[in-house]
Amino acid sequence: MFLPTYHPHIDGLRAISVLAVVFYHAKFSWVPGGFVGVDIFFVISGYLIVSQIATETQAGNFSFSAFWARRTLRILPPFALVLSASILLASAIFVLPSDFHNFGREVSTAALMISNFRYLRQGEYFAPEAETLPLLHTWSLGVEEQFYLLAPLTIVGVWWILKRTGRTDRNPAKIAVLTSALFIFSLLACIYWTPAGFGKNKAFYLMPFRAWEFVAGGALGLLAPALRELPNILWHAVAVIGLTIVAYSITVLDNVAPYPSYVALAPVLGSSFLILSGLMNPRLPILRLLSAPILVWIGLVSYSWYLWHWPLLVLGAQFDPTDDIPFRDTIALVLSFALAVFTYRLVERPIREWRKRGLRLSWRTVAIGAATSVLIAASGLVMSEILAPSLEVRFADEIRRLNSGYQPGIGSTGSCLLNSSENTTACLNWIGERQSGFLTGDSHAGAFAAVLSNRIHESGQVLALMLAEGCVPLSGLMPRHLADDPDGDCGAGKKSLDKWLMNPSFRPRFAVIAAHWQIYLRDDQIGQPNPVALVPVGDDIVGEDAKSLFISSMRATIEGFFQAGVDRVVVIGQVPAQPSGPNCLLKADVIGKDRDKLCSLRRSQHDRQASRAAKWISAAIADFDNVHLIEPAEALCDREWCRAYSSNGYSYYLDNNHLNALGANLVFNHFSAELDWAVSDTVESTANR
After folding, report:
1. 283 CB neighbour count, 10 Å cutoff
2. Do residues 210 and 143 make contact, with C-beta atoms less than 8 angstroms apart?
3. CA–CA separation, 395 vs 403, rounded Å?
4. Taking a C-beta distance cutoff of 8 angstroms, is the pair 97, 383 a contact?
5. pLDDT tens digits, one per residue of 568-593
6. CB 262 within 8 A of CB 253
7. Cβ-contact 171, 160 below 8 angstroms
8. pTM to 2 decimal places
9. Tens-digit pLDDT profile for residues 175-219
10. Which has the closest alpha carbon to 271: 17, 54, 18, 20?
11. Distance CA 408, CA 391 (A)
12. I want to staple 304 with a disulfide (CB 3.0 to 4.6 A). Which of 87, 153, 204, 343 is the partner?
């Protein structure tokens, strides 16, 4: 019934999947869908494991202890080696208490094969912050191990019930019905629980919502015997279609669409077609290509390569975040592959040969594996709960001094928030007859709010705020991942902005716009492939490409301000995004590295990153006399560096891209003439519209 024997094309498919994953993680642009390699792994695991369990169960010789012992010997030795090496490497690189705390928690959950639950709580897999987690890739091992725990219980249980309920010759049909039901139920749950935008993605991280991928692979062993008589030409077509779908998934799909959802059907079906066609006729040209020695060899070391590549990429970036990124990541991939070959030859292959010589598989092997996992998990807890707190005490004075230039909070006497109807009424009553202006934008605008409100308060004016995190302050455009939620904070904020600007009780004299512009403009086409990229909403904004849409939207936004009585507009350009957060300065001091090289951004790199935003904003405001653009880089950068700290060692940043009060003050001091112009009582020119 089932076909659990060795097939080289499956190792070739493993090679494709691991190459897709490692190249995707190294940010090779030609594999935007490389993350689907994990889905291919799941299908392969489903085929091999389900076939093995079902065959042994049908023959009456399945053993839970032997199965879990095999899984322990296959999975744990390389995994324990990589975790141990990662602990040693991280201990040599990390300095900050927060780094040790977070990494220690990662180690503990990874060792116990439950890291998928931790990363679910922590946030979005595709978010930039995920690139700082050295063990993020272990989420997939958690999913697999949880499948390995439940699969034998389920299959043996179902087989036991079927043997005692009716004729055994009907069992294949009953199994087919149960398999189909499980596949459909899990797939529908996956689609339902995949969120439309950023946020916690249960369908991505939790095994029940990924079970359909394993089931798809497991069903292949059930289908194969029934399809033997089909013509060879059909399997040739199936192989071609399968390889085409897999190639499409890796080179065309991207992380913009909600994932996994129904989108994951593509890599699952493509890999299933390739496996099944190889079972039917391994001599087909495409299957012979997959069985090429180089691909089979990469497939054999694929597990170890998957384990090694991500910690080296992340810890390499932690060691020197300002190094040449393509070169650094290429070195990490080459080194990880070399370590994978070493691990396969000295760990994986000897264990396989040991098993072939008649190693007795028992609960003792499982117990030793469990004890090893607990020991590694305990070392993670020591790191997070003992070492990290001791470092916090040790570095308390340095951290306090480093951040002593930061003055948190929005000046309560100088500003009010207009993000809701309740706030609007109170805010307008508070403003009364006083002269006022307003600040609008995302969290980058919020970083300027306290300093700006305090400054204009000194001139007798007050500031109204319209802020929405992650929401570009332009009419008719929204970040792609928020566009489907028009009543969310972003959509509701835009509607509220239009409403209160038309309120006769509120006539602001000036407006300030600020945003994290470059994250919205990373790509040539709006909406592709960056999930934060802008998409038009409604029919008011027109344009043929991303640039024209952005420019027309900013012009419409500014014209709306002028129509509401605003005299002057200040646009704050892109704040330089540093490679690390403010505590990097402490790290640089402790390890004796140059602060600039470790913690600051090269001016040339900022100019490249922010050039699109600067050009597009300049083009949008060119026709307006009373709109000024101020570029924070002019205050924060010299010809060589955009520094993250002051000459006396205080940080200018809250994190790697939001200024604190000290940094915001530096920008406004540099552009004091523009600020004075914005809040002055007279206007020298009128806006051209």
Report:
1. 9
2. yes
3. 12
4. no
5. 999 999 999 988 777 788 888 888 88
6. no
7. no
8. 0.83
9. 888 899 999 999 999 999 998 766 679 999 999 999 999 999 999
10. 17
11. 25
12. 343
